[in-house]
């Protein structure tokens, strides 16, 4: 399961006299990621290294550190903590002691991983949108059962003869709900699938 950060989080540690400050935040677009980096980068720091991941899209930057020692370890930390739609910036103030290639990878990757591990997160749950309707005589029963299947009512319309809803359900609840819906309405209700989304998009 993938997780999204609930908000901004930061983590700081000193490694061989160098100060590392990791900043992480949830994002929905590459533009949001770049805006976060522009806002939080520290111009007088030695390095501002970063990575972001949104689904299959990702980018990272070593900002002057040896290639592969900063940006990629940060990206690997995002993936290793099962996070998505996340941007992580690790700012380094050099303390006079060189860390070497392995030390840099551990420092940047470790700071990013610690930040993400400690940050409050929520699971990204795949949801199926359903449109369903029934006669008024069944509406109270149907409405009372949505929560039983972890459903979220997004829209409710009262018509001339009945009620119509747009409901978001976790994917694994769709078939059980559809089966019960048919029973509750004695096959007289209407149900169709709309687009899929996820719990972080609602």
Name the helix and strand elements from N-terminus to C-terminus, one letter apiece: EEEHEEHEHEEHEEHE
CATH superfamily of the largest domain: Impact, N-terminal domain
Helix content: 25-40%
The percent range for strand residues is 35-45%
Q: How many distinct beta strands?
A: 11
Q: In angstroms, what separates the terminal alpha carbons?
A: 18 Å
Describe this structure in words.
- The chain has 202 residues and is of the alpha+beta class.
- The chain has 2 domains: 3-123, Ribosomal Protein S5, domain 2, CATH 3.30.230.30; 126-198, Alpha-Beta Plaits.
- 32% of the residues lie in helices and 39% in strands.
- The chain is built from 5 helices and 11 strands.
- It has helices at 30-40, 71-80, 100-118, 136-145, 171-184, and strands at residues 3-5, 9-15, 18-26, 47-54, 57-61, 86-93, 121-123, 126-135, 152-158, 162-170, 190-198.
- The protein has a 5-stranded antiparallel β-sheet, with helices on both faces. Strands 9-10-8-11 form a 4-stranded antiparallel β-sheet. The protein has a two-stranded antiparallel ribbon with strand order 1-7.
- A hairpin with a 2-residue loop joins strand 2 (9-15) and strand 3.
- Helix 2 runs parallel beside helix 3 (100-118).
- The chain is rod-shaped, with a radius of gyration of 23 Å.
- It starts with a strand and ends with a strand.
- The model has no long low-confidence stretch (mean pLDDT 92).
